[in-house]
Write a structure and sequence with these properties.
- The protein is mainly α and 68 residues long.
- Helices cover 81% and strands 0% of the residues.
- It contains 3 helices and no strands.
- Helix 2 runs antiparallel to helix 3.
- It is globular, with a radius of gyration of 12 Å.
Length: 68
């Protein structure tokens, strides 16, 4: 449940950046990851989940890179 909410928030922020600014695929991923991973880092109890969250963002970045 936790990572489902995290990944949904990541994609929501990523889509919002695409609609408002459209900086390109990796710009969207950068802003989305800063916002969502920053939220995880801000709460001490959630910091243990950071490696898994970074891996999910990394896999999404890899998917985007291989698609192009």
């Amino acid at each position: 449940m936790f990572f489902g909410v995290f990944f949904s928030a990541f994609h929501t922020v990523k889509y919002g950046v695409r609609v408002l600014v459209d900086p390109g695929d990796f710009g969207e991923i950068g802003v989305g990851s800063l916002v969502t991973l920053g939220g995880l880092f801000a709460k001490r109890e959630w910091r243990a989940s950071l490696p898994y969250a970074v891996m999910m963002v990394g896999m999404d970045s890899f998917h985007i890179a291989m698609k192009d």
